[in-house]
Hints:
- It is built from ten helices and five strands.
- The protein is an alpha+beta fold.
- It folds into two domains: about 5-180, no CATH class; about 255-383, 2-Layer Sandwich (Heat Shock Protein 90).
Amino acid sequence: MNQPENNQRSIRQVSSSADLAFAIVVLAAYFTTFSTFQSANLIQIILLAVLGVVYILVGTYGFNYCLRSKNTSLRYLYFLIQIPLGSTIVYLTGGVGFNAMVLFPLSGHAVILLSSRHSYYTNITIIFIYGFVIRLYSESFTAVWSGLPMFIAGMIFIVIFTQMAVDEEKARKEVERLVDELEDLTITRERNRLAREIHDGLGHYLTAILMQIQAARAVMLRSPEKAEFSMEKAQALAQDALTEVRQSVGTLRSTNEQIQPLPELIEKLIHDGAESGIPVHLTVLGTPRVLAPASHLTIYRAAQEGINNARKHSRASEIWVDLDFREISTTGICIRDNGMGAEDFNGGFGLIGLEERVRLLNGYFDISSNKNEGVQLEVRVPG
Length: 383
């Protein structure tokens, strides 16, 4: 769910709750007023009923319109209408019952519609107008001072309760926004991970298959037996590629007992591409050990990428691979060749994906190249 949809839903929830609270408070004030209102004549009752209906309509529909509008002046106009209207209702009832409650919803509306400072000023204005109205119909400051503390206490309760509701709604929206961002980030990372798996795994096998097919075509006429052998090996590699595709996701979830030792995997990697004619020398430094699945896979992908790139692009006559277990806390691999190199080396998607893998593990990634001095790729990961 996107942010505009979240905002619209939040507005609907706030407005519906505020509408219900406004109507309940005003109707409760009218109920207690009319239940104790003995001296009112028919005209006064009709006038109060009309004012009450207008007050509720403006307090619901007008409030909703202001809530959806970003026009600040329109929000101020809402209070310029409602405060005098509510005060008139209080004045006409002459302090009977809990008639002052009709002003309480305006305190909550001020918290929702206005900024903190303007909400504060609006509530102070309501308090002063309430005192003025009480003084006007009672002609006594005693009545003002006796009712004012209770009125202020009620307003404070409304303001605090409304502010808590607004803060909770803001916090909920922020959590939803963060969840949406996290979902997007998770999807992006998963997409990148799958792209790396496709390139690093399937790409390696396709490269090896291509080499076998090229070797078969080169000797097809003069040595059909060798061509047949290369084609059989290409077929076997294709089967391995299908297995790799099916198991690439499960590799990261494998237990340590299910992981084939790295030296064996890299030896097989070297053997699969032997038809390229470029010798690859593997040196294992230290005692091999079992790594965490993510580190194990990253080292293997580094070997795939480094050896394949050297075979395809370097024009090298030899490739050296050093698998380093000498450090206790990290394991490293270094692939270097004696090819043509480059002064300005820009890696392709495979190297970018490999660097992302290493970075996710907080490992070390470095690739260096100079013209006529070959390329060196070094990766070190925890484990």
